[in-house]
Specification:
Blueprint lengths: L2 H21 L6 H14 L11 H5 L2 H21 L18 H17 L1 H20 L1 H6 L2 H20 L19 H16 L34 H22 L4
Helix pairs in contact: 1-2, 1-6, 1-9, 1-10, 2-6, 2-9, 5-6, 5-9, 6-8
């Protein structure tokens, strides 16, 4: 899928988690719901680090473009080293390593570790990166028309404000894991965003090797997806006219339920 659809699906997924948490009797404080939705929206772009033309490659200028090239080469090297005889030959690393459940788990766990071991600055870095990505995905038209510096300033200012709000007693720094483990939950929307991205790509024509390295049908990089007749091309009318409105509707219902309005 394209960047805006990925970000919308990420935000909707976290709002759905908020609704489920409320139904289970462990509701999220509203700052956790809002910040988590924005982080998940940004994290839903991150698996495309292996694609130098993706939205994320433009988000941080030369730094993100260079990182995308490195990740593309790394992903391709892993693909070549682990491919089974029935896996297709390819010339790049897009939709390989960073589009797997294992990558999602590692990036989520790493983010949680960063948040709890580096205290406030690690939290600010995670918030800044994912808020910039959320702006690029959710407000992509405005982001394209404005300068990168303005988007970065918006991300930095929002990260500082949101961290301050979360730090207030009862606002969610210690949500789910309790005192002494503040911000350990930050890895969850990042993990979820990566998985939602993979599931979204699985709906497209090429599928997604989300289950790597599990062998399926003689392949290590089996492209998981629905029957081919139910798949669509990225950027097609199905994505723009059906899925994106559905994500907005589901997100709205999930958010309202999480806040107790439904």
């Amino acid at each position: 899928m394209m960047g805006p659809a990925h970000s919308l699906s990420g935000a909707a997924a976290w709002l759905g988690v908020g609704a489920a948490a409320a139904a289970a009797g462990h509701p999220m404080p509203w700052p956790v719901l809002v910040v988590g939705a924005l982080i998940c929206a940004g994290a839903a772009l991150a698996p495309d680090l292996d694609h130098k033309s993706a939205t994320i490659s433009r988000a941080f200028g030369p730094l993100s473009r260079g990182l995308c090239e490195v990740v593309d080469k790394l992903s391709y090297a892993v693909y070549k080293a682990t491919r089974a005889p029935k896996d297709a030959r390819r010339s790049g690393g897009h939709r390989t390593l960073t589009h797997t459940w294992l990558w999602a788990v590692l990036i989520g766990a790493g983010s949680s570790a960063l948040a709890v071991t580096t205290d406030r600055w690690g939290v600010l870095v995670l918030l800044f990166v994912h808020l910039v990505l959320a702006v690029e995905g959710l407000l992509w038209r405005a982001a394209r028309m404005s300068s990168d510096v303005l988007v970065w300033l918006l991300g930095a200012t929002s990260a500082w404000i949101m961290a301050g709000v979360l730090d207030q007693p009862g606002n969610g720094a210690d949500w789910l894991f309790g005192p002494g483990q503040e911000y350990l939950w930050l890895g969850l929307p990042i993990l979820l965003g990566a998985l939602v991205h993979d599931l979204g790509d699985a709906l497209t024509v090429s599928g997604c090797p989300i289950l790597w390295p599990l062998p399926i049908a003689g392949k290590r990089w089996y492209p998981v997806g629905p029957p081919k007749g139910m798949r669509f091309r990225a950027g097609s009318w199905v994505e723009l006219k059906v899925l994106m409105p559905a994500f907005m509707l589901l997100g709205g219902v999930g958010g309202a339920s999480a806040l107790g309005f439904l």
